[in-house]
Amino acid sequence: MERTPTPPSRPGLLVIQPLRRRHCAECRSGPRSLLVWEEGAPRCLDCADLGHLVFLPRGDAALTRRSREESGLSAVVVRFNRRKSRYERQGVLVEEAALALAEERCLADAEARRRRRVRDARRRAAEDVRFTDAFAREIRRLYPRCPAERALAIAAHASLRGSGRVGRSAAGRALSGTAVASAVRASVRHTETPYDWLLMSGVPRHEARRRIAGVVEATLREWGGAPP
Q1: pLDDT, tens digit (0-9, with 9 covering 90-100), for 66-113
Q2: Residue 33 dihedral angles phi and psi, to the nearest 5°
Q3: I want to staple 26 with a disulfide (CB 3.0 to 4.6 A). Which of 47, 141, 142, 198 is the partner?
Q4: Nearest Cα to Cα of residue 21 among 8, 31, 9
Q5: Residue 154 CB: number of other CB atoms within 10 A?
Q6: Which residues contact 107 (CB under 8 A, 6 or more apart)?
Q7: At what angle do helices 96-142 and 148-158 cross, to 10 degrees?
Q8: What residues form DSSP beta bridges with 53?
Q9: Beta bridge partner(s), residue 42
Q10: What is the pLDDT of residues 203-215, one digit of tens each?
Q11: Alpha-carbon span 133 to 139, nearest angstrom
């Protein structure tokens, strides 16, 4: 006969999910999926005065914590893991009313978090618009004959949040002349020259840059001179 592992000794009420079919030693009903060990014998939840509780599986820490806080009576449910030779937590038993109240509180928190995310997204969007405008103004300062629409397009591309481009670097955020000039030069390279085509044709990057350098410099001079 398979021996039942000794349940762990820990504070609070403990309920076992047995690995094999077992009946209640008191009322003989079963087999039961949840049992309480009392005086070395398994007892069903009804005989252990826990039959009115409902099972909440593990997985939602906030819901579990709040359910136990609201429940006057609760128990931890564990099951033995043969491979690891230890009992592992499966969930908790709590009062149904406590679970319902905890679910309402968690839903309210979820709605609050959703609203906060919306507010944060709007704030970030407004910040991005202001920064893009400032970046475009700096482009126009360094290259006064650069078309306004083009300056704004370069700024929007370089400062896209999460892109990792020069506009999101520390220097870019500080609107340093070097960072702004780098963004402008990159835009000219990819837009006004056959640079991308050269790369796709197998031309090494440094060679491709050398070939289109004259066009880049000419465009920069046309927009107001060489960058600082």
Answers
A1: 999 999 899 999 998 888 888 899 999 999 999 999 988 888 888 878
A2: -85, -15
A3: 47
A4: 31
A5: 25
A6: none
A7: 140
A8: 95
A9: 37
A10: 998 999 999 999 9
A11: 10
